[in-house]
Amino acid sequence: MGYLHEGHLRLVDRARELSDRVVMSVFVNPLQFGPHEDLARYPRDLSRDRELAEARGVDCLFVPDAKAMYPAAPLARVVAGPVADTLEGAARPGHFTGVLTVVAKLFHLVEPDVAVFGRKDFQQAALVKRLVQDLDFPIAIDVAPTVRELDGLALSSRNTYLTPDERRSAVALSRALRLLEQTWRGGEADPAKLKLAGMEAMRSSGGGVLPEYCALIDDDLQPVTRVTARTVVVVAARLGKTRLIDNVVLGEGIGVDPRVTR
After folding, report:
1. 209-242 pLDDT tens trace
2. pLDDT tens-digit profile of 88-111?
3. Residue 136 CA, distance from chain mean position
4. Rounded to 5 degrees, what are φ and ψ at 60?
5. Is 84 exposed, middle or buried (0-12, 13-18, 19+ CB in 10 A)?
6. Residue 128 sits in the same domain as residue 174
């Protein structure tokens, strides 16, 4: 949705590895915002986005406006079903219908051979994979690792909303994930205990962090009964008016890229 950061640009790098030509869409999709969400104030800087995209090797920047994408209120929409009503879908009703509808439209308009998404939005990436599978899009979906700042905070356009104090507190999410990874490596495999530990780690961090959920799921977004190296821990929390999400695949760990600085 624009306001590009290094996480987005790594997706470009990955797309260049996999493709001869790279198309990037920049579109703040109104269909995926709820009535009281941040559509109006979502950060935008198209001229900066153009410069960053060109410098990184994007061959075509597709920048439609809302009227071009939705000449009329869409009668047909892509609805993912119950699996999209959990986690982010529970917190943001209708969000994934908006996401999958616009992704389906973009796939149809661009007809890519491969599309690259970021793992930070784990549920979104999983649902896009199912969209492609269920509707027989001839597209390979590649999911690139989350890019983090040196202190572990996952890069996000919404990080710009954070006050300096909130920014310092925001590392509570990645620290909770790292704690759960270490706890699992220490032998704890009970998802209920890890979930409680994750919620408590965020809650006790102070700094105005209000945890919303900590869930342990598999690649199909289903809760696990036994934790393995492939288990994904997903978390969400609020800091003031800002809502942040993060996740880790336990067997892979978080890691921090030394090339990324604040």
Report:
1. 999 999 999 999 999 999 999 999 999 999 999 9
2. 999 999 999 999 999 999 999 999
3. 23
4. -145, 125
5. buried
6. no
pLDDT for 258 equals 44
Give the number of domains in the chain.
2
Which domain does 227 fall in, by range? Answer: 157-249
Q: Are strands 140-144 and 209-217 parallel, antiparallel or unpaired?
A: unpaired
CATH number at residue 24: 3.40.50.620
Cα separation, 111 vs 127, whole angstroms: 19
- Which is it for strands 242-249 and 60-62: parallel, antiparallel or unpaired? unpaired
pTM above 0.85, yes or no: yes
Pairing relationship of beta strands 114-118 and 140-144 according to DSSP bridges: parallel
Amino acid at 113: D
**Active-site residue list:** 8
Closest CA to 51 of 85, 84, 24: 24
